[in-house]
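Usage

Read records sequentially. Each one opens with the input sequence:
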Amino acid sequence: MPGASPAPATAPAPPAAAPGRTPRITGLHTRLLTVPLRRSWGQEAPENHVIATEIQTDDGAAGRGFSWTPTIGPQAVQALLDYDIAPFITGMEASPEGVWDLLWKRLHEAGGGGLTTIAMAGVDLALWDLQARRAGASVTALLGQRQDAVETYGSGVNLHYSLDELVAQVERWVAAGHRAVKVKVGKPDVREDAERLDAVRSVLGPDRKLMIDANQRWDLPATFRALDVLGEYGLEWLEEPLRADDLWAYRRLRKQSLVPIALGENLHTVYRFRDFIEAEAVDIIQPNIVRVGGITPFRRIVELARTHSIRVMPHLLPELSGQLALTLAEPTLVEDVEDAGFGQLGILDGPSPVRISGNRLTLAGTPGLGFSFTG
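and closes with the structure output:
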């Protein structure tokens, strides 16, 4: 099958694990799925890539997970899983945190984050799925569900939309019941951004939350100029206006900005989150569960944020981030990009593990993570 790693050779069934013994990993299988987006994110991102993963253990069980990238490196991620990760983890006890720590040390020579942690997420998610299935529970229940439902917000990759298309999108969000929305900014002339936000705010009214995301389009002087113009629209946060690596600039920005600063979708390790938090360069962190390497590091990042009273807003992937959001002690918002969920893209072989109705996300109650991909 194109995009699939070679099927493992036929072998005798593994012996059942002895009672009380943690099963060991016997194999890792991957499949690459590329799916066109129903609403294009622009010329640079017309599709998304999912690397579906399955881990087998010596007691005959299996856990399913995935890695994900909207643009760069899906084949590289799959190759890393097939040729470097699979042989390394084979024979290890199927313990998510133990495997994660050993694997991160192994891969660090190729980079502490980025493609390495994206690939690691495929292993970590599958191991958590396996552990929850073995317990006969959802991953949310296994980790400890703290909330019955969590609020979602309407989000869109819409800088390339015309003003009329943008207004129509916001009207759909309002009609669906969203109390918070996020739109893209970063037009060549900030006055056009202001015109678009003025129209958006007119649809939202004064009481709904409005967030803006510049996707690293500005430098520091441009950000200050933009805030002088756009700050009047009652913004809940300004997301990633500067290059994600530029800690020095974010520290200066947060000291002077009256609008809360949000970032994190392009930070990949707990150490980078620690750096930004301790430098007092951020108000809200937005870890992407796949980009940081899975559930194991995501939970560590959340606890770091809690000790510093920093809010956590998971980035994208509501079918995954919604499950983890239900385990958080503090209120959060889950990002729901219009028509971009896995179920909406038609790549789930079965129902979604979460339900979104209006602006509320609840758990469907499927065992494990509940992901089974088509193909």
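Summary fields computed downstream for this record:
- Residues 6-16 have pLDDT under 50 and may be disordered.
- The chain has twelve helices and 13 strands.
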